[in-house]
From TrEMBL:
Protein name per Swiss-Prot or TrEMBL: Leucine--tRNA ligase
Protein family: Belongs to the class-I aminoacyl-tRNA synthetase family.
Record carries keyword Ligase: yes
Domain Aminoacyl-tRNA synthetase class Ia: 433-589, 636-676
Pfam family, one: tRNA-synt_1_2
InterPro entries: aa-tRNA-synth_I_CS, aa-tRNA-synth_Ia, Leu-tRNA-ligase, Leu_tRNA-synth_edit, M/V/L/I-tRNA-synth_anticd-bd, Methionyl/Leucyl_tRNA_Synth, Rossmann-like_a/b/a_fold, tRNAsynth_Ia_anticodon-bd
Segments carrying motif 'HIGH' region: 45-55
PANTHER family for this protein: LEUCINE--TRNA LIGASE, MITOCHONDRIAL (PTHR43740:SF2), LEUCYL-TRNA SYNTHETASE (PTHR43740)
Domain named Methionyl/Leucyl tRNA synthetase: residues: 41-174
Domain of life: Bacteria
Organism encoding this protein: Pseudoduganella namucuonensis
GO cellular component terms listed in the entry, alphabetical order: cytosol
A GO MF term: ATP binding
Length: 881
């Protein structure tokens, strides 16, 4: 190699070496690694075609962890795979008129190359691809098992129907109530779908968030808890006599509600039902105004966050139900804030103590009746909403007859008992979590293994006929699922009666694929079972790394799926991921111009010339192409829409992968956001050039020392250098363990500075000290910049002496090197600090006394012989005069 750092040559050399020795193939129980297994895995990417900086950051964190732990004796596994099913492939297929399969496979090939150019320690022999039959066969197998056990069931669900394209749309394809392609007003349709009973596991999923996931970020655990959303309260009925056209009582004459505040039951002044509630439907017959209002409610967002903030609207139904405890008639309204999917789709309105009901009652002039007070808030006013209403702990019941004076818990017990005695209600736990609808009316996914027979109905595909292979030659054209026109796929015989039948054309939600892929990595090639004994070795996963955007759904489904596998006897653990790291987003500046109509055009930061003031703050920005000004739009997440992405490939080509890796690790701790900085990248590259130059400058001395990684010191300069290096190593080790990689990079920088400025004498002993120091340095830098450190390690002869840096033993802190041979002692005169003195560590009291008295800076405070000298060993000398 040349003495000038050439990243392209260096990285090419390192990568072909790794390939030649199959460096990253992980083998169960590998005797080379005495500390046992460590499974560190990144969330699998969608094969969009190109890596983005978020990927680079994610995988580099994973890779640093891999290399550090491997050098520490762990058998580490870092696999990779592809979340290859899903909608973007269908969209791309429509745009380019190629089958999703072709688009996906060529993207995978390209992204795999990009990952290889980053020098990641991936065991490619375990690569999994969700769209391959060898993988999705097991989704189908699980589906059948779950169906058999009743964990999967069929019911009708609501979908978005595009009447022009004649197709079902995903939520994200509906923009402002219209189809994203056709612009048609979207209708809701009820169709049969398959659901997985995740709600049966709600209690365990919730409990284990608290008890079994201490290695997860608090924030993610809270998000899981809220998503599962456990509420304790009472479910009870308002009886009524409302009859439908046939004279039958609607819902058997009971309007059920769920409340978390049964202590407020005597404060009910109205009830409200969801637009989809049977009483709303009943009342709307012959009431066009109400029909229109119901239609309006159904159009609106079903996102809960929106429900909370939107304007509360309602309309009376003209129907009345009976209060179960007072016997009073209560008017029923349709309210846009009542969700059909939660509880019973109906609420008791307690405007005095529920904020939503309060807003509603104010708007429609409904009575407000206070039934709760607290010791601290005797004053009561209906003029505005007061926060204290909501405090359960402080609540005391008033204006409620026999319940007056009870606190929350006592009132709940009393009300629940009275409702129960009347056969109208009981205590109940309600979850926000819904069962998981896994059917998708789309082509590019795992076929649902069902067959529809005119005589037998829906019949499961027999296990021996799996996989049901998805044809790879379809090109969706926007007019619905192409499988519906694919005769070869559709036609089959009924497994029960043998008559001609049709295959189900719905496919599975891609969250099914991502629910267990990380277990398939452990068992590549397993054809007899979804996972085999190797899975018991690697799982549960020691460290999972991915974006916070997956904090809820993906992680919850993966946890659920794991529990199902456990209950089927396929795995022996309860939770799949021991530790979770959610890496921060990658941000960059944005630049734009705005036209007269207010439309913004965004420019890529690479095309901008920035002028800064002397403090480095941006002054103005010009578009390189035309030299004209653009607006600076602030720092935002790298995204296509703001055109502020930086292409990793371009960075690697310009500076090398080691620079890109070093910058992303250095710029901020893994869990924080990372701000892209062109000058930061240049700085990272400059540092690596210095690393190279220093290594080459010391080549002769390191070779003279036989590339030894051990040394002893006798001169001051040698001792100081060893002490500094070992001290930095000690801190860096601590930071590596707590995944604080940015300070590990600064430790490397400090080490290089220290070595560069050391004033070592000539001679064999100094050579050895230097050789030891550089060997420590290379190994510390190796996890972050594996290429340059691999090549230098070999070039300087360490490889011959200590083996491949990949497997080299992690440098150990030498406690003896840390020891100070001299210590500094403070000198006080009459208790006042007057100076300090350095004394040999082993010095005795007399010697310390003499040295302190001889110290020039204190002599002027002492006249004559001091009365007394007190030595506090290791700390200070107090001279009393
Ligand atoms: C009366 C009441 C009085 C309520 C009060 C709260 C406070 P969480 O805690 O999130 O489970 N609710 C019940 N079903 C609903 C539905 N389908 N759509 C919208 N809101 C619904 O919420 C439970 C509370 O949400 C219930 O308790 C009910 O309002 C409302 F001072 O009942 B509450
Ligand atoms: Zn049949």
């Amino acid at each position: 190699m040349q003495d000038k750092y050439s990243p392209a040559d260096v990285e090419q050399a390192a990568q072909s070496h790794w390939k030649a020795i199959d460096a990253y193939k992980a083998v169960e129980n590998d005797p080379r690694f005495p500390k046992g297994k460590y499974y560190a895995c990144s969330m699998l990417p969608y094969p969009s075609g190109k890596l983005h900086m978020g990927h680079v950051r994610n995988y580099t964190i994973n890779d640093v962890m891999y290399r550090y732990l491997r050098m520490n004796g762990y058998n580490v596994l870092m696999p990779m795979g592809w979340d290859a099913f899903g909608m973007p492939a269908e969209n791309a297929a429509m745009a380019n008129n190629v089958p999703p399969a072709q688009w996906t496979y060529s993207n995978i090939a390209h992204m795999r190359e990009q990952m290889e150019s980053m020098g990641l320690a991936i065991d490619w022999s375990r690569e999994m691809t969700a769209c391959k039959p060898e993988y999705y066969k097991w989704n189908q197998w699980m589906f059948l098992k779950m169906l058999e056990k009743g964990i999967i069931y069929k019911k009708t669900g609501t979908v978005n129907w595009d009447p022009i394209d004649q197709t079902v749309l995903a939520n994200e394809q509906v923009v402002d109530g219209r189809g994203w392609r056709s612009g048609a007003l979207i209708e809701k349709r009820e169709i049969p779908m398959y659901y997985a009973r995740i709600t049966d596991y709600a209690d365990e999923l919730l409990e284990y968030v608290d008890t079994k996931l201490p290695g997860w970020p608090e924030r993610v655990r809270t998000m899981q808890t809220n998503w599962i959303g456990k509420s304790t309260g009472v479910r009870f009925a308002f009886p009524h006599e409302i009859k439908d056209a046939d004279g039958a009582l609607v819902q058997d004459g009971r309007m059920y509600v769920f409340t978390t505040r049964p202590d407020t039951i005597m404060g009910v002044t109205f009830c409200a039902v969801a637009a989809e509630h049977p009483l709303a439907t009943h009342a709307a017959q012959g009431n066009p105004e109400l029909q229109a209002f119901i239609a309006e409610c159904k159009m609106g967002s079903v996102i809960e966050a929106d429900m909370a903030t939107m304007e509360k609207k309602g309309m009376p139904t003209g129907l009345f139900v009976t209060h179960p405890l007072t016997g009073e008639q209560v008017e029923v309204w349709v309210g846009n804030y009542v969700l059909i999917t939660y509880g019973d789709g109906a609420v008791m309105g307690v405007p005095a103590h529920d904020e939503r009901d309060f807003a509603f009652a104010n708007k429609y002039n409904l009575p407000i009746k206070q039934v709760i007070t607290t010791a601290a808030n005797a004053e009561y006013s209906t003029a505005e909403w007061q926060e204290w209403y909501g405090d359960k702990e402080a609540a005391i019941v008033v204006n409620s007859g026999k319940y007056d004076g009870l606190d929350y818990a006592a009132a709940v017990d009393a009300v629940a008992a009275d409702l129960e005695a009347k056969g109208l209600g009981e205590k109940k736990i309600t979850f926000r979590l819904r069962d998981w609808g896994i059917s998708r009316q789309r082509y590019w996914g795992t076929p649902i293994p069902m067959i529809h027979c005119a005589d037998c109905g829906s019949v499961p595909v027999p296990e021996k006929d799996l996989p049901v292979v998805l044809p790879e030659d379809c090109v969706p054209d926007g007019s619905g699922n192409p499988l519906n026109k694919h005769e070869a796929f559709l036609k089959c015989d009924c497994p029960q009666c043998g008559k001609p039948a049709r295959r189900e054309t719905d496919t599975m939600d891609t969250f099914v694929d991502s629910s267990w892929y990380y277990m398939r990595y452990t068992s590549p090639g397993s054809n007899e079972a979804m996972v085999d004994a190797r899975n018991d070795y690697w799982m549960p996963m020691d460290q999972y790394i991915g974006g916070i955007e997956h904090a809820v759904m993906h992680l919850l489904y993966a946890r659920f799926w794991t529990k199902i596998m456990r209950d089927f006897g396929l795995v022996k653990f309860d939770e799949p991921f021991v530790n979770l790291l959610t890496q921060g987003m990658v941000l960059n500046e944005t630049y734009y111009r705005e036209d007269a109509a207010g439309k913004k055009t965004w420019f890529n930061p690479a095309d901008i010339e920035l002028t800064t003031d002397d403090k480095g703050r941006p002054q103005s920005a010009l578009l390189k192409a035309d030299g004209q000004a653009v607006h600076i739009g602030g720092t935002e997440k790298m995204s296509k829409s703001k055109n502020n992405g930086i292409d990793p490939q371009a960075q690697i080509e310009q500076y090398g992968a080691d620079t890109a890796r070093l910058f992303t690790m250095f710029a901020s701790p893994p869990e924080q956001t990372l701000e892209w900085s062109g000058s930061g990248v240049e700085g990272a590259n400059r540092f690596l050039r210095r690393v190279w130059a220093y290594g080459y400058a010391q080549k002769g001395r390191i070779e003279a020392a036989g590339a030894s990684a051990a040394a002893t010191a006798s001169t001051d300069a040698q001792k100081t250098l060893r002490r500094e290096l070992h001290k930095i190593l000690q801190q860096a080790d601590y930071d590596l363990k707590r995944i604080q990689y940015n300070t590990v990079v600064s430790a490397c920088m400090k080490m290089l500075n220290t070595m560069e400025s050391a004033k070592l004498e000539d001679g064999a002993e100094s050579d050895a000290v230097l050789s030891e120091g550089y060997a420590i340095f290379l190994r510390l830098l190796n996890p972050v910049a594996p290429h340059i450190t691999h090549v230098l390690w070999e070039e300087l002869g360490y490889g011959k002496a200590l083996g491949d840096i990949l497997n080299a033993p992690w440098p150990q802190v030498d406690a003896a090197a840390l020891e100070q041979s001299e210590i500094e002692m403070m000198i006080q005169v009459n208790g006042k600090l007057r100076g300090s003195v350095k004394v040999p560590k082993a010095a005795d009291k007399a010697a310390i006394e003499a040295a302190a008295l001889a110290e020039e800076s204190v002599q002027k405070f002492i006249e004559g012989t001091p009365k007394k000298v007190i030595v506090v060993p290791g700390k200070l000398v107090n001279i009393v005069v």
